[in-house]
Specification:
With 236 residues, the protein is an alpha/beta fold. The chain is 31% helix and 25% strand. A hairpin with a 2-residue loop joins β4 and β5.
Length: 236
């Protein structure tokens, strides 16, 4: 496992990294995508979010990343109200989380190394403080020999691994991952799961949305299920 985290997340059992109370989301003039969702993620917990296609998994993650705002209910992140924060507050919340997007969202004009290094550059620290960490993370996800290549030259699975490396390199307090093993083989999927588990043991709260219920069962993590916009198992 790469180097120790710069800031360990609190594992105080009284601390909630995520709390949703009666949260709903729907588009104007359309049916609700999420209905009365109650969810608590304790600091340092590990959860899988499963459910059929169209159940609302990606929508729920978009609420947690503050890309969308709930149309009803209350959302808290890191103990702070986040249902409708001002734009000026968004960077502060987002610096504390790492997000693995299903569509990768890599910058094609940057090398693999620079894509992973981007959140560290934005944090304002010098290259000498993190260059070795970036290289080690790329090695961990099997891209050490491709660190100078740009995303358009990578396969879908390689892009997914690169996206994961970028999300976790800062050792965030919360990791939100949307289908992070969907484009890799079973062996790499197991390796990436071990990466998430290692970060979780260091105190990071992890929520993985996935169709792979076998992987969820193998993880030993608590499994939440979304079906028809309603969440099962999220409030205990």
């Amino acid at each position: 496992m790469p180097v120790q985290p710069r800031r360990a997340a609190s594992t105080d059992s009284a601390t909630d990294t995520v709390r949703l109370e009666g949260v709903s989301f729907g588009y104007a003039g359309g049916p609700s995508v999420l209905r009365d969702v109650n969810l608590i993620l304790r600091a340092g917990s590990f959860h899988f979010l499963t459910g059929p296609s169209g159940a609302g998994k990606t929508t729920l993650l978009s609420l947690l990343t503050l890309a969308r705002r709930p149309t009803g209910g209350r959302l808290e992140l890191f103990g702070e109200e986040a249902s409708g924060p001002p734009r000026s507050a968004l960077p502060g919340f987002r610096r504390r989380m790492g997000v693995v997007f299903q569509d990768f969202r890599l910058l094609d004009h940057l090398s693999a190394f620079d894509n992973v290094a981007l959140p560290l550059r934005l944090a304002g620290t010098g290259r000498e403080a993190w260059a070795a960490d970036v290289e080690e993370m790329l090695d961990w996800v099997g891209l050490g020999e491709r660190m100078n290549d740009r995303p358009p030259t990578l396969s879908g699975g390689e892009k997914q691994r690169l996206s994961i490396a970028r999300a976790v390199v800062t050792r965030p307090e919360l990791i939100l991952a949307d289908e992070p093993t969907g484009s890799v083989d079973a062996a790499m999927g197991g390796r990436l799961l071990k990466l998430f588990q290692s970060l979780n043991r260091l105190g990071t709260t992890v929520l993985i949305a996935s169709h792979d219920e076998a992987l969820a069962a193998a993880s030993g993590a608590r499994v939440l299920r979304l079906d028809g916009g309603r969440l099962r198992g999220g409030s205990t």
